């Protein structure tokens, strides 16, 4: 099937990264769409957790925020936010965190705080919320963001969520025992950190996308792996599930 948008490709490629055995801390927006597509296709037994304390939630429509009633209504159970972070997250019970961000650098550090100087920013962003703790304490982190020079920048004005810091073994030197970001899924390609330097490297390119497009849309001199594959196109089932949940979400939010 060839009739799909770059955003649909990104969401489906992100969904494929998840497995049935994952206990996943879900971010709002693109991460939420990807996680629920995974749940409705190849990973029906995945456990989705949102920051508001909902565990094992199975929303019929995508939430607008972590406090959306749909999450609590469809959860196996709901715990207090302090329990969510102190026991579930910091206790090492969550295998995967799925995050987005306004900006990212070559070592997968994320910025969701400010664009420009902190004291006099050009843009004041929503802030970290629980993302810094998710990035530090989940077994691994997947990140989904559209590839653009505005978002993929040479140097972050502020690091909200730690990725691989300055690269290499920086996480280990800081005493962090989790893997950190292991995959970044964009609308043009998929990146993974180099095993040694931890610099993000293109490992898969979506159908119809050129290396030149990727380089032109990145704020640093992006590197390509020795072997780069073509990302498999979305299947009819994957597209149908994604479009159905987006249509239900649009209808529900318009009615509200």
UniProtKB/TrEMBL annotation:
Pfam families: CoA_trans. GO terms for molecular function: CoA-transferase activity. Transmembrane segments: none annotated. The keyword Transmembrane does not apply. The keyword Transferase applies. SUPFAM superfamilies: NagB/RpiA/CoA transferase-like. InterPro entries: CoA_trans_fam_I, NagB/RpiA_transferase-like. Keywords: Transferase. PANTHER family: ACETATE COA-TRANSFERASE YDIF, CHOLESTEROL RING-CLEAVING HYDROLASE IPDB SUBUNIT. This is CoA-transferase subunit beta. The lineage of its organism: Bacteria, Pseudomonadati, Pseudomonadota, Alphaproteobacteria, Hyphomicrobiales.
């Amino acid at each position: 099937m060839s009739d799909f948008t770059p955003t649909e490709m990104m969401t489906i490629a992100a969904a494929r990264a998840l497995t049935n055995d994952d206990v996943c801390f879900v971010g709002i927006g693109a991460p939420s769409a990807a996680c629920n597509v995974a749940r409705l296709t190849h990973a029906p037994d995945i456990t989705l957790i949102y920051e508001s304390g909902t565990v094992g939630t199975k929303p019929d429509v995508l939430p607008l925020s972590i406090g959306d009633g749909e999450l609590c209504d469809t959860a196996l159970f709901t715990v207090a936010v302090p329990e969510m972070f102190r026991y579930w997250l910091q206790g090492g019970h969550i295998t995967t965190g799925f995050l987005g961000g306004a900006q990212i650098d070559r070592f997968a550090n994320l910025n969701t705080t400010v664009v420009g100087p902190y004291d006099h920013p050009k843009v004041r962003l929503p802030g970290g919320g629980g993302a810094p703790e998710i990035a530090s304490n989940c077994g691994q982190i997947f990140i989904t963001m559209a590839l653009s020079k505005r978002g993929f920048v040479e140097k972050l004005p502020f690091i909200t969520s730690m990725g691989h810091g300055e690269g290499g073994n920086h996480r280990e030197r800081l005493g962090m025992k989790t893997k950190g970001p292991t995959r970044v899924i964009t609308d043009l390609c998929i990146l993974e950190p180099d095993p040694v330097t931890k610099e993000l490297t293109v490992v898969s390119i979506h159908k119809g996308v050129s290396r030149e497009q990727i380089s032109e849309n990145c704020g640093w001199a992006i590197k390509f792996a020795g072997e780069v594959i073509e990302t498999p196109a979305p299947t009819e089932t994957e597209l149908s599930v994604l479009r159905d949940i987006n249509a239900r979400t649009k209808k529900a939010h318009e009615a509200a």
